[in-house]
Amino acid sequence: MIDSKDISVVVQGAIDLTETPKCLNSIRKQLPEAKIILSTWEGSNVEGLDYDVLLLNKDPGAFYVISSGGGKIYNNLNRQLHSTKEGLKRVDTKYALKVRSDIILDSNSFLNYYDKFPKRCDEYKLFKNRIIIHSVSTRFGIIPFHFSDWWFFGLTEDLKTYFMDTPFVNEPEYTTYFVDKKSPYGELKHRFASEQYFAYQCFSRNFADIKMRDGWDYNKETIKKSQLVFINNFIALDYAQSGIWFNKHMISKYENTIGSMYTDLWHHYKWLENYKKYCDKDYKLKPSLFMMDDDKLLKAINKIKYNCDILSNKKNKITKRFLALIFRLPYSLILFLVKFIIQIIRFFIKIIFL
Fold first, then answer.
1. Which of 288, 312, 341 is the last residue of a domain?
2. What global pTM score does this model have?
3. How far is CA 329 from the centre of its chain?
C-alpha cells in the first residue's frame, strides 16, 4: 500500500465550523503522515484546526444562481478551481488527495485500488496512471464528461494535468448561459455543470476530436468518448471501497439501493464491467444480480421516473396526468418487470456457465 508520508492532502473550500474539523481530523487519523494543505479564503476562522500548511486565498467570488430551501445557491466553480490550483502548487509529494473541506475519511481503503487495475486501452489515455474518484455524481450516459469532483486521488502530476491549465469562467455569462432556453440542469442555467467543466476542459485541450459547445451539445459519439475517457483515466469507487463520504449527500455513504444504481450514475461494478470490456478481457468479474447493467432496464426505470414526475407536477394539464396514470405508468411498470425477469434469467445463465 502507498505510504501516507508520500501523500499531500489538499483540503479546499470554505471553512465550516462543524464539518471542516471532522474532515481534517479524519484525514489525520487515516493518513497520519500525510501533509495537510488547507486552501481556503482570507478572513476565514481557522482557530483550532489541524493542518500543516495554510493558504488564505483571495476569494474570486461566486455568482448567485437561485434560492432553494430557504437559502441562496451560488455557482462556486471559480472558487473551487482557485483553491484547488493554489493547493496543488504547494504539493511536493508523489501523490495527492484533493478533497472538499466537508469530506470525511472513514478509512484509507481507497489506496488499495490505486494499482489494482493496470491494463489500459490506447484510446484517450491521458494520465500517467488512473485517478480515483467517487462514483456518486459521476454520470454514465446523457450528461457526458460529468465526473464527480468531490475528491480525487492520484499522482500529483496527473491531478495537476487535470486542473492547472483549466481557465476560470467569465461571469455572469457562464452561469446565465441557458437563461432564455431550456437547460439540461433544470433550474440551473450554467453552460456546463462544474463536474463537466473540469473534465471537458481537460480532455478537449488534449484531444482535438472532443468538442462540446455546452451541456446540450452531445450525441452517441460524444457519450461513447466520455465513457472511454472515464474508463481509461479514472477508477470509480463507492463508499464500500473508498471509505470516503460527503455528509451533505448521505447517498455517498448509503448508495446500495436500486435507485442509485440505475439513474445514469456509475458505480464500482459498472466500472469493473467496462474495465473488462475495454481494457482487460481476461479480468475475472463475478456475476451480481443487482449490479448487472442492462441499458434496456435502465431505460424502463427512467420511464417510470418520467411518468411519476408528470403525475407529481401540478403544472401539467389534467389530461396529460390522467394518461400518465392510466396508461403510461402501468405500461412502464410492466416493461420494467419484463426486463427485470430477463435480467434474472441472464444472471443464472452466467452462474451456470462460469
1. 288
2. 0.82
3. 30
Is the same domain home to 284 and 301?
no
Q: Are residues 314 and 283 in the same domain?
A: no
Q: Give the count of domains, the chain.
A: 2
Name the residue type at position 260: S
- 208 and 344 share one domain: no
Residues 30, 108 contacting (CB under 8 angstroms): yes
Rg (Cα) of the chain, in Å, rounded?
21
Give which of 90, 25, 231, 30 is closest to 147, Cα–Cα. Answer: 231
- Provide the domain limits for residue 28: 4-288
- Which amino acid, 280? D
Q: Yes or no: say if 26 and 102 are a contact pair by the CB < 8 Å rule.
A: no
Q: Kindly report the CA angle at 179 between 178 and 183, in degrees rounded to 5?
A: 40
- pLDDT, one tens digit per residue, over 53-63 is 999 999 998 88
DSSP-derived letter for residue 51 is: -
The length of the chain is 354
Is the domain of 231 the same as that of 129?
yes
Residues 282, 306: one domain? Answer: no
Rounded Cα–Cα distance for residues 305 and 286 (Å)? 30
Q: In the numeric block, which cell numbers belong to residue 65?
A: 444562481
User: Do residue 194 and residue 321 come from a single domain?
Assistant: no
The alpha carbon of 115 is separated from its chain's Cα centroid by a whole number of angstroms, namely 21
Q: DSSP letters along 154-173, please?
A: EEHHHHHHHHTTPPPPPTTT
Q: Tell me the pLDDT tens digit for each residue of 210-258.
A: 999 998 898 999 999 999 999 999 999 988 899 998 877 656 555 554 4
Instruction: Select the more confidently predicted residue: 56 or 291.
Output: 56
Both 312 and 271 in a single domain? no
Residues 199 and 274 in one domain: yes
